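User: I'm putting together notes for a lab meeting next week and I want to include a structural view of one of the chains we've been expressing. I don't have a solved structure, so I'd like a prediction I can at least talk through. The sequence is below, exactly as it appears in our construct file.
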Amino acid sequence: MPVINATVVAGTYDAAEKGELIAGFTNAVVAVKGEGVRPFVTVLLNEVDSGDWGGGGDRITTELVLGAIAAGNEAAAAPAPAQAAPVTADV
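Assistant: Thanks for the context. Below is the predicted structure for the 91-residue chain, given as structure tokens.
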């Protein structure tokens, strides 16, 4: 049955978060195939050392990933900008 390989930069997920990833990946397969497949879903989490991963020609580090996560969480928590009322005119 399915084997899911997920690779992350070392130090970006703690033990509890790794458990959440394993449960989430498993639940995603169960959502598609049904509860009977749960015992057969295998999830492997692989950690790559900080800086041993790259994208776009640049090294990806633990600090870079954690900074991006923090920035994304802050942006998601920020209130949405107020929308201006539509302008209408009588002609």
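A couple of points you could mention at the meeting. The chain has two helices and four strands. The longest helix spans residues 15-33.

User: Perfect, that's what I needed.
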